[in-house]
Write a structure and sequence with these properties.
Length: about 150
């Protein structure tokens, strides 16, 4: 009798992720890693203006559809217009000038950002999603062994 195919019986689960570090309740109020203010994570709008399209954006992005994640701000140049507007590392770009960024490839996202002098963005701070852009094992395992529930 042939043994059953375990991949058919058990779904392919993502790799284990350790939970966040536990912070004692009395220390949470003063800890920068802990916040109960959900407004910090709500989408917000900002308008970045440049004089010409060849001018630097003042920030870098990473991620994209080909990496199975959204487009995230990975670096903000100090004293840039993006910095003054409050853009920060870990912000997910949801929309730019009415273009949905949640399902764009990285190259297409960069094109949309660079082709405009007035960039109306909707962003949200989403550090969990941003940290997952660095998880190379997740991207390799999902492309070699796709599971519809974990994309």
């Amino acid at each position: 009798m042939a043994s059953p195919d375990l991949n058919a019986i058990f779904p392919c689960l993502p790799p284990y992720e350790a939970p966040p570090r536990w912070i004692p309740p009395e220390d949470r109020i003063n800890n920068p890693d802990y916040s109960t203010d959900l407004r910090h994570f709500l989408p917000r709008s900002l308008v970045l203006k440049r004089n010409k399209t060849s001018e630097a954006l003042g920030f870098n992005v990473r991620g994209g559809k080909e990496h199975h994640c959204g487009i995230f701000v990975s670096k903000v140049m100090p004293n840039s217009e993006a910095d003054r507007l409050g853009l920060k590392e870990g912000d997910q770009i949801l929309m730019v000038n009415d273009a949905d960024f949640e399902s764009l490839d990285h190259a297409d996202a960069v094109k949309v950002l660079k082709m405009n002098t007035s960039i109306q963005m909707v962003v949200r701070y989403f550090p969990y999603g941003y940290e997952r852009t660095y998880d190379k094992n997740r991207h390799q395992s999902s492309s070699s062994n796709p599971s519809p529930g974990y994309r």
